[in-house]
Predict the structure.
Amino acid sequence: MNATMASEVLAEEHFDEADLAALQAGIRTVLAERCGSLDLHAFLDRKLTLDRIIWEEAAGLGWFAVGIPEVFGGLGLGIRGLQILHQELGRHCVPGPYVATLAAARALASASSEPVVANVLERVATGELRIAVPAGTAESAGAAKNAPLLGDSDSPLAVVPVDGGWALVDLAATGSDLNMWDLTRCVFAAESGAGTVLARLPDRVGSDLAEAMALAVAIESVAGARAIAEQTVEYLKQRKQFDRIVASYQALKHRAADLFMRITTCEKIVQQAVDLAAQGSADAGAWAALAKAEAVDCYTFVSEDCVQLHGGVGFTWEFDVHIHLKRARLNEMLVAPNYIMRDRAADGLARAALAGRSTLELPTS
Amino acid sequence: MILDKRNDLNAFRMGIREWLGDVVPNDWPERMAVADHQEFDAFQRWWMAERNKVGLGVPHWPEEYGGAGLSLTHQIVLADELARANAPTTMMYVISLNHIPGTLIPFGTEEQKRKYLPGIPQGDVWCQGFSEPNAGSDLASLRCRAENKGDHYLVNGQKIWSSYSMHARYCILLVRTNFEVKHAGITFLLMDMQSEGVEVRPIRQNNARAEFGEIFLTDVKIPIENRVGEENDGWRVCQATLASERGVLAFEGAERHRYAIEKFFADAVRDDARWLKDDQIRREFTGLFAELQAGRRLIRQLLDENKDHASSASMTPAFVKLSGTALRKRMASLLVKIQGLEGQRFSWGTEDMFDQPMFEYLTSFGGTIAAGSNEVMRNIISEKGLGMPKG
């Protein structure tokens, strides 16, 4: 194995676009080698503990440190570093509690520096700990008690609403897996009241967590959409019917063009949200919500069409399209269903408009 | 002078802003909405003259041809300020400003450059005689006949979709000089619209305006020295013509759209507009708001690629055309819904799509058809970009 550690690519405090590109290339190389189609299918069929294998690999290569501030033992690359990581995780449909753990860490890092939280973040950075979060309606402290959690049912740590506030909790017991259609993520039920509160957290953790999750899901969704669209076009170039390469039919070419048009558009929407988050904009939450809705709807649309473009094999377990389709549908429900995300975005944009703020500023040179 | 400030980009920007503040009349959009051909023509000429007074008639041309030699970065700042100020467009001069220098500078003779380029900042309008009734997307199938008579070409045929041809002094014309071959039988000519045998008939569009013309050519004599490039090499020349606009126009359009949508949304929020309470319409609008911003980012990517001279395999120009025109249509359609019955009353549109959505909606169909139909764009994206084989 010739994978490079994230920390070697990124000399501390001195990273630029070339370094980030090198980080991305490194992650992509590892995942292409270790998390290919055959590996994923072996995982779905319970013949390979791919989730554990990749997690350990990621830990060894320092990927979990990417988004965590240096003060907590991370690389301090913030949302831009996380963007690169989630792009590759989404592209390769990597099984495991990445969205939950990384979003929880991001929210925790800006919420508290008390020793117990610092200790947890340091151990997340090394890949030792996973953290669960509410799978849906994560922003409200008054959210339903014992609402389903996204994460790892064997791992007891969670950031959840407790007694009208937010807390870092040791759930103490193994949760019961709710068996999602999407086998690459785990949603589970747990008695949050039975756990031990390790640290009380400020209320803003709710909205920070919702924003971090929405961004992570948006980034992974549009990356997954691009991956399956590319894979599908390559399939069309191999497949022959009526003595013609199927990809030469204009009806299919135009559909492929429309898929990439929509993916390209959503990549820009996601980038807008990432940039606002990186700037610490007051409107980052609204754009994260908007990006999540747009990117996930794109992922569903693209995956559906890729099933059809594959023909009969697109309907089978053996091909990859259903993995993307199921991830897309679960993503749709994470944080909140997309119609609610759009409403939150509209509320946020309206607040900005009333305050006389533009959320659309871009550099012109 | 604005151009004296070019070494300081911010001072350059502020100079433009100040000039626009002084010179742009507030009521021009309303006046132009109801203007007839003559008023439109006069207003466009006035605006070109005003731009020329401050050295911004042909700001993007090289200095040796009378331009200001502005870098792409400076052109973008200028376009951004024009959009911010809701300044008049130069729509009558699109061919003059972009396609003529894009053709003559690389392919024209010294005489042609000296004769034709200086007239443009002085107000010469050019039109494009490329498409024909039976040569649309398949442009190279054009059949307008030109016979070489030694010192001139004798031209007979018909051209169509020539924007502002009824205002034009000159025309760039594609003609067929060889009927045995397709692409290799096309020649590129410069035609004086006042030549004998040239007749222009306006084409009335679905929005009741007449901006296009049909050009009928009957025994028109065009001097041999008006040929650009060699005889039968016109296809190569016209590729340069069609590639001459590098995205600044699309940029300016998208920036105008941005200011308009923000104002429309802020007004709706302040007025507590009823449509904001309709879940379906509000959600659809929010999505279009996001797509508009995506389009602005995509155009910036195109401009960056053009600064870096990206490869011709880039899908970005086709994506910009496909997404921008389709978005405009969907946005206009949603605005028609929001306006209700009132929006169905006939009204001339202004430059602002949010003023008269039905007019904008009807106009937007031109965008998805013109300048390479969106179907042609999908062919380009799938074949050149995605490597899907020709059928």
Summary: Chain B touches chain A through 46 residues (CB under 8 Å). The domain at 123-234 of chain B is CATH 2.40.110.10 (Butyryl-CoA Dehydrogenase, subunit A; domain 2).
